[in-house]
Amino acid sequence: MKIYIPKDAAALSLGADETAEALAAAVPEAEIVRNGSYGLFWLEPMVEIEKDGRRIAFGSVMPEDVPSLIESGFGAAHPLYLGKTADIPALKMQNRLTFARCGVIDPLSLEDYTAYGGFDGLKKALEMPPQKIVDEVKESGLRGRGGAAFPTGIKWQTVLDCAADQKYIVCNADEGDSGTFADRMIMEGDPFTVIEGMIIAGLAVGATMGYIYLRSEYPHARDTLRAAIKTAYESGYLGDNIQGSGKSFDLELRMGAGSYICGEETALLESLEGKRGMIRYKPPLPAIKGLFGKPTVVNNVISLATIPVILEKGAAHHAAFGEGKSRGTLTVQLAGNVKYPGLYELAFGQPLRDLIYEIGGGTATGRPFRAVQCGGPLGPFLSERQLDLAVTYEDFAEQSAMVGHGGVVVFDDTVDMAQMARFSMEFGAEESCGKCTPCRIGTVRGYETIDKIIRGENRAANKALLEELCDTLIHGSLCAHGELIPYPVLSALREFPEDFGLDRQAA
Amino acid sequence: MTAQTEKRFKPWDDETAQQIAADNRDRPGALMPILTELLEDFGYINPEFVPHLADLLNLSRAEVHGVISFYHDFRTTPPGETVVKLCRAEACQAMGGAKLAEHAKQMLGVDFHGTTADGRYSLEQVFCLGNCACAPAVMLGETLYGRVTPERFDTVLKKHKGAA
Ligand SMILES: Cc1cc2nc3c(=O)[nH]c(=O)nc-3n(C[C@H](O)[C@H](O)[C@H](O)COP(=O)(O)O)c2cc1C
Ligand code: SF4
Ligand code: FES
């Protein structure tokens, strides 16, 4: 018998190790596989047993549940029984392209990886001229999943078109946006996908060196990536003469050091060069003058991890999901105060309201919903009246909302939105790179002013001052960090003035 | 079997530090990998090591210092045996993160960036541990915990103290 218990950091944070130990002791003859997580976190630690080629799942299995599980013969009568994993409704309703293998396989087993289509995309890419690979990515409609949603194929074209003795592929694994964990999950649950995507990117633009820049808050992903890179070298997927093709690609993992701004691509490049993570002026674009002054593709983990399936199944397969200019899938990360938090890979176009109330099951506390923040700490807060929009780049942009990296953080009615606005400014100040004055100084003035409003000092005047400050930040900042911080602040002020002691009229 | 292991810092020693620096000096952008490796081993960057690093990499001391001071992780004093990272970001706040932070400060008797008198724990704020679906989240050393109520925080701490 095979037993699967995730070693995904979030599953571990709920006791997956203890459950694994209890099972290993109770069923010594079983083969225990530590897989990634499917991302249904209210069911973690989730245990699966494989019998006759079928995987049966049990949810939230704690060590004390092990004796009864064994007594029931891992049967349907057990209260934690979920049925066939693939039939769990929250999984079945998803469109798993990027995350197809995550949870299913042993993340570090090359055998598992290739058995589930891994490296099929690379095999095709090795036979294709670079322009064909870039065209495939263009036709897929893939847009960057790191936040800015820039078309990936167009970025690659720019780098391909640059003549240079050295080009680079940089994987942005800084995942600084609070409320997001898709990068972490795929790096821990299916790391070869990220590696394969980077190799294909290298083949497409003529880059022979890649770096993964990983945030230091992710030690589990660090260990998994280190092991996966080693295996990829040992099995001839990295290094010289990839699979006898005559092509080569080297890959190195680099660690960040707790700086949010280093997720911005130019600050990230500075950091990779061993410097302070200060924003660079653009232009030149990193695609033209990037790492060490060379043409560089900087892509988010999920963008790169989606490349293999695009090559494997074709651009049209990817483009068939989604709508308008939002093609493929978004890895929605439902978090915060929500009953069924987790990762949901869904075709673009889902109504936001359904995400929160149907898929997410409403708040975890059972209290009324009050606000949702989409797109990370720089995304605006939305109130109940704003939930009727589809999750697409176009619909969100129309409402000045942000899709970003796909984070959706839900709050119940106990939230104090004035405190949330203050936090946004404080966070902005804490993580400002300091290069330009509006952001460096303005964010500090911002939370000081919010404090005054909260304390009831000259509310109307200070509100006007705050709005003016926000305007300066939006228009006078060098990068999107300063430009976007005002959005959560202004949205809180507009949608929830009563939390600031202001009445709706004045707002 | 166990995927999460308790990690311990070594006391600073110049010889190991010099070895780390020498091993990495020829890597492009060497300063960051050297600093992050020193941090992984020792938990801090000894400021007395800055001149050596500057000489080795042909940088000015000010440049090396500038990099160290830019990044939140690069502390220049030894942390407690275990660093407690508590998430202050939005998803954790939505699930009682602020209350947990107050509780943790009180239990440990320190503020953020502080180290307990017995040298066991340093408390740090972080903005997201990638565990936002199991909020609030805390990391002790490199061990992650989810759905950490104040009661669970006490249990975790007690167990951690007992295990050491
Ligand atoms: C303040 C700030 C923080 C950012 N943080 C991240 C991050 O953590 N991860 C990421 O992939 N992109 C981040 N970005 C976006 C990157 O600058 C860049 O657009 C992205 O890495 C490009 O990859 P993509 O096209 O695949 O999305 C950030 C941008 C800004 C302005
Ligand atoms: S807006 Fe802020 S983060 Fe961006 S360059 Fe200016 S100071 Fe740096
Ligand atoms: S917001 Fe706390 S772990 Fe992500």
Which ranges of chain B are low-confidence, i.e. pLDDT below 50, for 5 or more consecutive residues? none
Kindly report how far apart the N and C termini of chain A lie: 63 Å
Low-confidence stretches of chain A: none
CATH superfamily of the largest domain in chain B: Glutaredoxin
According to CATH, the fold-level topology of the largest domain in chain B is: Glutaredoxin
Q: Give the mean pLDDT of chain B.
A: 95
| Total of domains of chain B | 2
Structural class of chain B: alpha+beta
Q: What percent strand of chain B?
A: 5-15%
Order of helices and strands of chain B: HHHHEHHEEEH
What oligomeric arrangement do these chains adopt? heterodimer
Strand arrangement, major sheet of chain A: 2-1-3-4-5
CATH class of the largest domain in chain A: Alpha Beta
Backbone shape of chain B: elongated
Helix content of chain A: 40-55%
Number of alpha- plus pi-helical segments of chain B: 7
Descriptive report:
- The complex is a heterodimer of chains A (507) and B (164).
- Chain A has 507 residues and is α/β, with parallel strands linked by helices.
- Chain A folds into four domains: 2-90, Glutaredoxin (3-Layer(aba) Sandwich); 110-319, NADH-ubiquinone oxidoreductase 51kDa subunit (Rossmann fold, 3-Layer(aba) Sandwich), CATH 3.40.50; 322-412, Ubiquitin-like (UB roll) (Roll); 417-500, de novo design (two linked rop proteins).
- Chain A has helices spanning 9-13, 16-26, 66-71, 89-92, 110-115, 120-126, 130-140, 152-161, 182-189, 191-205, 219-234, 265-272, 301-313, 315-319, 352-359, 393-398, 417-431, 437-455, 459-476, 480-484, 486-495; strands at residues 2-4, 31-33, 47-51, 54-58, 81-84, 168-173, 209-214, 250-255, 296-300, 322-323, 326-327, 329-336, 342-347, 369-374, 381-383, 407-412.
- In chain A, the strands form four sheets. Chain A has a five-stranded mixed sheet, with no helix packed on it.
- Chain A is globular and about 70 Å long.
- Chain B has two domains: 3-70, no CATH class; 82-163, Glutaredoxin.
- Chain B is 43% helix and 11% strand.
- In chain B, helix 1 (14-24) packs antiparallel against helix 2 (31-42) and helix 3 crosses helix 4 (61-70).
- The longest helix of chain B is centred in the last third of the chain and has 14 residues, at 150-163.
- In chain B, 42% of the residues are buried.
- The model of chain B has no long low-confidence stretch (mean pLDDT 95).
- The interface between A and B is large, with 68 and 52 residues.
- The complex binds flavin mononucleotide (FMN), iron/sulfur cluster and FE2/S2 (inorganic) cluster.
- Iron/sulfur cluster (SF4) binds next to helix 18 and helix 20 of chain A.
